[in-house]
Write a structure and sequence with these properties.
The complex is a heterotetramer of chains A (201), B (416), C (1029) and D (100). With 1029 residues, chain C is an alpha+beta fold. Chain C contains 24 helices and 50 strands. In chain C, the strands form 13 sheets. In chain C, strands 8, 9, 12, 13, 14, 15 and 28 form a seven-stranded mixed beta sheet that branches. Chain C has a six-stranded mixed beta sheet with strand order 41-42-43-40-34-44. A six-stranded antiparallel beta sheet of chain C has the order 46-49-50-45-48-47, covered by helices on one side. Chain D is built from two helices and six strands, in the order βββαβββα. In chain D, strands 3-4-5-6 form a four-stranded antiparallel beta sheet. Classes of the chains: A alpha+beta (201), B alpha/beta (416), C alpha+beta (1029), D alpha+beta (100). The complex binds flavin-adenine dinucleotide, nicotinamide-adenine-dinucleotide, flavin mononucleotide (FMN) and zinc ion (ZN). Zinc ion binds next to loops of chain D.
Amino acid sequence: MAETLIRSVSALDGAVAPGRHGHRAGDVGVIATEVRNAGLALVTARKGQRAPLAETVRSTFGVALPDAPRRVAGHDIAFIWSGPDQWLAHMAPAPAAGMEAELTPLAGMAALVDQSHGRTVLRVTGPRVRDALAKGFPIDLHPRAFRTGDTAVTSVAHIGAQLWQVDDAPTYEIAVARGFALSFWHWLEASAAEYGLELTR
Amino acid sequence: MHYSIFSLIGQALRGNTGWQPVWRDAELKPAYDIVIVGGGGHGLATAFYLAKEHGIRNVAVLEKGYLGSGNVGRNTTIIRSNYLLPGNIPFYEWSMKLWEGLEQDLNYNAMVSQRGVINLFHSDAQRDAYARRGNAMRLNGVDAELLDQAQIRAMLPYLDFDNARFPIQGGLLQRRGGTVRHDAVAWGYARGASDRGVDLVQHCEVTGIRVEGGRVVGVDTSKGFVRAGKVGLACAGNSSRVAALAGLRLPIESHVLQAFVSEGIKPLVDNVITFGAGHFYISQSDKGGLVFGGDIDGYNSYAQRGNLPAIEDVCESGMALMPMIGRLRLLRSWGGLMDMSMDGSPIIDRTPIENLYLNAGWCYGGFKATPASGWCFAHTIARNEPHALNAAFRLDRFATGHLIDEKGVGAQPNLH
Amino acid sequence: MSGIRDVPSPLVGEGQGGGEARRGGRPPTPNPSPQGGGESRWRLGSGGLIDRSRSVGFTFDGRGYRGHPGDTLASALIANGVRLVGRSFKYHRPRGILTAGPEEPNALVELRSGARREPNTRATTAELYDGLVAASQNRWPSLRFDLLSLNSLVAPVLSAGFYYKTFMWPASFWEKVYEPLIRRAAGLGRASGESDPDTYEKAFLHCDVLIVGGGPAGLMAALAAGRTGARVVLCDEDFRLGGRLLAESLVVGERSSAEWAAHIAAELAALPDVRILPRTTVVGSYDDGTYSALERVNDHLAEPPEHEPRQRLWRIFAKRCVLAAGAIERPLVFGDNDRPGVMLAGAVRAYLNRYAAVPGRNAVVFAAGDETARTVGDLSRAGVRVEAIVDARTEVPASIEAAAKASGARLLAGGAVVRAIGSHAVRAVDIRTAKGETERIACDLLAMSGGWSPTLHLTSHRGSKPVWDERIAAFVPGALPKGMSTSGAAGGRLGLLEALETGARAGLEAAGDCGYAGQPVEVPEVEPESTVFAPLWRVRGPKAKAFVDFQNDVSEDDVALAAHEGMRSVEHLKRYTTLGMAADQGKTSNVTGLALMAELTARSIPQTGTTTFRPPFAPVAIGAIAGHHRGKEFRPTRLPPSHRWAQEQGAVFVETGYWLRAQWYPRPGESDWLESVSREVRTVRSGVGVCDVSTLGKIDVQGPDAAEFLNRIYTNTWTNLAVGRARYGLMLREDGFVLDDGTTSRLAEHRFIVTTTTANAAKVLQHMEYCHQWLWPELDVAMCSITEQWAQFSVAGPCSRDVLRGVVDPQHDISNAAFPYMAAAEVSAMGGIQARLFRLSFSGELAYEIAVPAGYGDALIRRIMEAGREFAIAPYGTEALGVMRIEKGHVAGNEINGQTTARDLGLGRMMSSRKDYVGRVMADRPALLAPDRPTFVGLKPVDRTARLRAGAHFVPVGAEAVAAVDQGYMTSVAFSPALGHWVGLGLLAGGASRHGERVRAYDPVRSGDELVEVCDPVFYDPAGERLRG
Amino acid sequence: MRIDCCYCGPRGNEEFAYLGDATLARPPADPAAPLDDAARAQWHDYVYLRDNPAGPHRELWQHVSGCRAWLVVTRDTRTHEVVKVEFAREVALARVGAKP
Ligand SMILES: Cc1cc2nc3c(=O)[nH]c(=O)nc-3n(C[C@H](O)[C@H](O)[C@H](O)COP(=O)(O)OP(=O)(O)OC[C@H]3O[C@@H](n4cnc5c(N)ncnc54)[C@H](O)[C@@H]3O)c2cc1C
Ligand SMILES: NC(=O)c1ccc[n+]([C@@H]2O[C@H](COP(=O)([O-])OP(=O)(O)OC[C@H]3O[C@@H](n4cnc5c(N)ncnc54)[C@H](O)[C@@H]3O)[C@@H](O)[C@H]2O)c1
Ligand SMILES: Cc1cc2nc3c(=O)[nH]c(=O)nc-3n(C[C@H](O)[C@H](O)[C@H](O)COP(=O)(O)O)c2cc1C
Ligand SMILES: [Zn+2]
């Protein structure tokens, strides 16, 4: 049979057009980009294994596992706290062998579950990004309250979401369940409309 | 004194100076044959029917606040008998019958308004569940009609049919359902009971229940001790606290349910409508306010007030159902203490303590039950045995497994 | 300043308007030159905070008028000489404008038109904009001539609660006659009845200090807190900051009061962490420093600009809150005190000073307080002739005598206004002098004041009980809710200096509590003032309606009647007379009402007590509280991986929970859904079909104790499940009823994949987390949802294996021998894509479920369709899925409805007796073991052509259909293409032992009544050979 | 109402799922042991009876929209004031005397 090209499609593909949305005149207030082909895995420390796990993560990936809602990045992998004894391992681009394979050094100390396809990740920034996010995120994003490296698991517009700040611009990355990605986009579009929203590839 | 258009005119000519108090504000006597704890709808109705049906007049109703300060004065006034399960339908239908004759019974206009209650459904499964319910009602001789989308559209054109997240497919209609002026129910029963000799004592909180040799002998109150041959508890949201005074633990949690009213507007919503894809139900009071509500806040509370999430949820559901209310304004919000039982159904029964009787577990549905609840509780107390109509509302049903779980969510009160 | 949007400068009307502001406060010169817009007679030639450089047009009841930016509808009406604005609720009495703020009980209008019509809008807060359209309400046929004003004639019969005493006979008349009449007469404005065309949004705001109110107290509080560097939010419902400073002509420091307010506002706007929200009413105070506030983002425009909301509901989280909401002036109770032209003194000053609008030409001032001097001064400076000053006190202070002298007004100390004369407008007032003689004085304006009540509403809901303050004869906040403090008039500090001082202090303290220290702000100098007044609740006079609650038409007589009928508690008074229950929530009437009740029942005011103020402080559009979540966005939509593909196929979709799933795939020429669905079923049974089952809950369970954990949450055993195998499992709730079912596979010694029903996915995960974290924390197991990670498709039918051979990579042997029924394995597909393969069958056919990472789901469905082409594969939807499960007698949501036990469903054998599990004990209660419980059966129509319907009840043949013989009901039905007739599943009393019997499927709500035959629930391939093939 | 999740900080109650009384203990569950009346009564009380106090209440909440941790919250049911929040798994581990 004819070979079809196998590619992973995003939940937004074909549903959302890149370019300017909402208010079109003047400077753009919020810029959004989908982080594609990233690797995500949920790492949950096994009973009594927290310390050895932290040690192995340090020795293998050069990352000090955070025990507070923080994101700690190594050179090609970041560990993002996402619950007690639980982290999201984040790599962009995703490793060829897949996340669970990449993390095998941690096997035995932690449950490893690939979530690369389970979440849609959007990177958002721009002069009005805080104002737009404040229309749904209940957490305090004031520069004194939420800094680069901070993360929060919460819900926005009835959609579960995890957000972390990657720089002081500020730039945030927001992960939502893949199935809800389009509804999340609708909310973001509505919330940023008055400032002008740009979706870049 | 008898109420009628003639007494109104007569009094008007005399400058309205000849009216009698609606009820006697009685002083507490040292002893009564029967003491009812709780001057809400159920307590007052119980006293009324004790006097009317059983000729027992040496009765006191003790109320810690003002009469009607509890849920009878806080509810969204919906009455219906569109229940599903055998234990429930005949009881609520009897209540509906009593409502239908209430004005004449009390010579007091509680504005029983049979404007029709419509439960909307949004999926095939929901339709089948409502068909099951409607059929159960019909088997019990209760009126029920299953309407399809076209019929609902013709009846309620202002609902969101074309842009809905959960499209309306139809609804279960009980035409005899409707609303009743809540405060008037308390006042009407109070007047009726008082006229028949019952003592209504306000600002009299029961602080203790005295039990001797396994039988109740009286209650301590903020106004002193009262001896009582029998004691009936009708304390709704405070049932657990009061039962605890007699050492009883109940299958009940107290939760807060909020309700809302809009500014008064000209007639807009003619029936009672409940949303099937979210927590929202609405009717319009005769004064013009849209009276609406939704789900309980979901956590144990005695604060008689709730928080924002429940309010937002209700308004989101309201807008999803009838986007025409967007520019109408919410005027006031308040809360009441729900006695949420473990299977969502009430208890009207004797207790392990002799001559102590319990009426509780009404959740958010006890207003419609007021007449039958009072009627059955009066019977249960007077005869020391449940009437067939409340036979299923036993306290021991949780142990035997004879649950009456209409929603099928199990022993999780905040889900009923 | 970081703002959700560029907040309109609080100095609205700067430039030209600001120029006015700079002059505002100085004695305005009585109008010399006539101005445009026919408003000259009633608009001062200079002064006020309106932008005279621009003139805007508006209409009221169809008539055109002109006003200026900075006007409210009320001030513009006054400036146009309009006095009659509305009709009252019950007696339809003509009403004018009483106040200059949100407490307005009378001047309610229908604002805007068409779908944007807003009933009951206070003219006193509606900002004027060009093209504004307003109409009076609750009148017919016209405002001037209103038929229902006849009600006044029978007023004595319409006394409080009259409706409880009549309309009882004949009973049937209530719904048909009486109620419709009452409903039509009641209510105020008319709703548009159309869907609201505007959008709303919600937003969150976090701060250290929230300041409610931007008058002198609030401004000082904001300044003191803001300068410390604390994060401050200042909300004021007005479009301009300043509060009473805008309404009075005072000097603060060396500036006019309005100018000073603008000056402070400017400094605040410059502070980086101070957020000023004008047009924003704080409407509610909730637990733990949560406040709700409504911002009227664009109500001052005819329509919101594109991409902007009409209003925004803020949820504010504040560590501290300073309530600086000011005070509300009280009317006096005397005969016909509701006549248009009778106005609160504070409002009169506001219209003169802030709006340069003249509410009358000949005024009488009636009060018992020292503020009168200020009122008289402002009036005469505006060129209004003050005919008389009536002060109920026999001793009046020098300030008032001086004012009388200066204005040439007669001073009637110890006198009282007993009645206002005139119907559509006051013409005169009757005054009882100190000597007891009655005298009529002509006037077109009566400025009255019964003193001020602190605006303590926001303290009330959270349980703080107000206390009576003799000093100012008003209730002031008692013990405050956690985190809240008051300042200025809201705290009972009525004087300007007090307001400034308490504000500065409160702001500094609040910031301090949040860890921000700072210097005290120096308080500017102000002229000395006296806020003294003597309480005066009512004036006895000739028989005439004396109103307490203007909006609900509650008169002094109604209060007396309530007392008479034993409705003496304030709560009974309120509910019986509806005092304080109107749209203004009794802002101007509650205190007077209870004072009257206290007098009537010989109790003190504190003994009598107050009712509770509840949120919202001011009415809030319901749309604003819903925000984004209406229409299709009411709740999010969850899309499975094949959604786009299914759309291309023209699938019909159905909402299942948040998911949107393909229900069936119609083909050209198919006449209805049944035809399409039957075709899909036949395709599966005869060839092969594919269905997206990604929505089933999938939970990854790992750890050495995983099997033991499953043993405890499932009724059946898992420790003995081999790696690479799947098993059907059943979960109970602790109360013994069925919670959920599904197949669970063991991928490795310590790794299982649990599947749940689509509906219960979230509930089951929560339950498992509860069991792990709370019941059995000692178990070494971890779990998480992988529902979204995997796209999973069921490939079902005799040809499914052949199709999968073209999908699963060749190195994997999927032959029946190598991969038998209930096998599970990790494989690869489509050339190296990670995949999971399960040999499961819901349809009863040879079937598989294959899963790939969700991003490849789209590719997978296309590949399956391609590989299936030679086998004429067809996609099938949830309907066909349902038909096949019914044919196979599998239970689903309709049977697992929370009211059924494992035994009811014929699954008793799955309840292990060798181990404990959730629900084991309670499932054993006597009533749940009763043999006559409805149990799971299959049903066939005796007349094979008949259609069955779920929800029908079972009653015995020949017996009358009544509750006593109700034996259960039909849970699910389907048309079985395999059998060629409808089949059903149901719960029938003692059903298991009644196969072969006949019962009636009674369905009166759909006029159905079918004879059905009870049978085994498995209609199709009972032996289960096909799925093993 | 705000609940200060041990991990995520204060969040609105809408982020949490409520279960109820945290003072109840699941009775011993040995399938071999006979289900006598005492045992049945114990189970009935566990599943159905509640103290439902007006005042401090130890109750189970789950931070479902957050870290998914189950929490033991001590809250006054008269004022809604949260006085203490504990991490349920730690409380439970202490109960069974096991290590995390
Ligand atoms: C917001 C809301 C909406 C509702 N909507 C509906 C509806 O639409 N339809 C419907 O059928 N039901 C509804 N309900 C439920 C219904 O109101 C109640 O189930 C019913 O009123 C309870 O019976 P009751 O009237 O006797 O309770 P209450 O009126 O609460 O009477 C109990 C009385 O006992 C008193 N009391 C308590 N403890 C003591 C003590 N120690 N000493 C003395 N007195 C004591 C209380 O002060 C109270 O007055 C609603 C409830 C609420 C809160
Ligand atoms: N002489 C007297 O008897 C007397 C009596 C009362 C007031 N006053 C004068 O009133 C002033 C009192 O100063 P103040 O600052 O305390 O009160 P204020 O009335 O000057 O300011 C209160 C402000 O709060 C705003 N507000 C009220 N409720 C609000 C809410 N829920 N949300 C948002 N904003 C809200 C109002 O719009 C107003 O701008 C002084 O100038 C004083 O002289 C005098
Ligand atoms: C059916 C119904 C309609 C109501 N309508 C109004 C109303 O129109 N105006 C009003 O101020 N309150 C209205 N209320 C609310 C009461 O004012 C009050 O909030 C409620 O009885 C609870 O008492 P509380 O707020 O004193 O705790 C209504 C209450 C009910 C139950
Ligand atoms: Zn958390």
